[in-house]
Design goal:
The protein is an alpha+beta fold and about 270 residues long. It contains eleven helices and nine strands. It has two domains: about 10-150, Jelly Rolls; about 155-265, Arc Repressor Mutant, subunit A. Helices cover about 45% and strands about 20% of the residues. It is elongated and about 85 Å long.
């Protein structure tokens, strides 16, 4: 399936998916070609081999192999294990560069460590959109970047965990005035609640809830010093569910009621 109405403007963009194909072999598939475009093949089932640039690779379910323009290729399945794969043609000024980033070099490649299973639903979506010709002018470009993002290796668990506390703090800093639950933040980041709690406390020396309360109270104190809005409004803008809860938390931390704090000359 070619992207409907795809013209020269696609060749001039950074990156786009111009063609998507679905292939199911009947066995004993054996093909030779010299590609004219960058082409990614995502193997869904079966087993075979790909010969490119003087090297042969095995390609089975979960493999991704890439053709580069001008480099002859030969690929074949193994009779009883017929291939099923999706192939997409990448076009644009950065097509070769983008494919090289996935494969680690500007030559044809085959890899088994990419996230092929993550892009299955996206490939189905692209097929449906191309078939229906129901898309924005930017769909082909957006789809290409989404495919690359889906295939790119995820950060290793230890690396993700090392950045977890920072990510939690950033979420709290940006959304402290909204209702926040540690469990929801943990789910958003793909970790369990106890891991988030431990990592945050280890880095910042306090639980996430304590940090959130301090942030809210600091913001509330600033609003009180500025004056001009009610205590209830200060509580709402600072993320507290009610003026009563806000007043109780404020008095506990600063030793004075919000109304008294605002009236103090040295506030």
């Amino acid at each position: 399936m070619y992207l409907p109405a795809a013209g020269a403007e696609l060749e001039r963009c950074d990156l786009a998916v111009a063609i998507l194909g679905r292939f199911v072999s009947r066995g004993d598939f054996d093909y030779h070609q010299t590609p004219v475009r960058v082409s990614l093949h995502i193997v869904h089932g079966g087993e075979g081999s790909v010969t490119m640039d003087g090297r042969e690779w095995r390609a089975a379910q979960g493999s991704v192999f890439c053709f580069m323009p001008g480099c002859p290729v030969a690929y074949r399945d193994r009779g009883a294990r017929a291939w099923r794969y999706t192939w997409i043609n990448l076009v644009g000024t950065r097509a070769r560069e983008a494919a090289a980033l996935l494969g680690g070099g500007d030559r044809p490649w085959c890899r088994d460590d990419l996230q092929a299973d993550r892009v299955g639903p996206l490939l189905d979506e692209i097929q449906a959109v191309f078939r229906a010709d129901d898309h924005s002018p930017f769909y082909a470009q957006a789809a290409a970047w989404r495919v690359l993002d889906g295939l790119a290796p995820r950060a290793a668990a230890p690396d993700r965990a090392s950045h977890l506390a920072t990510a939690v703090r950033r979420i709290i800093d940006e959304r402290f005035a909204q209702p926040l639950k540690l469990g929801s933040i943990a789910a958003q980041l793909g970790f369990d609640r106890s891991t988030v709690f431990r990592r945050f406390q280890a880095l910042y020396g306090c639980p996430p809830k304590t940090y959130l309360d301090r942030l809210r109270l600091d913001h509330a104190a600033a609003l009180l010093r500025d004056g001009g809005i009610s205590i209830a409004e200060v509580a709402s803008r600072s993320g507290f569910a009610s003026a009563h809860r806000f007043s109780k938390a404020f008095r506990s931390r600063l030793g004075v009621a919000p109304s008294r704090y605002r009236s103090r000359p040295d506030a």
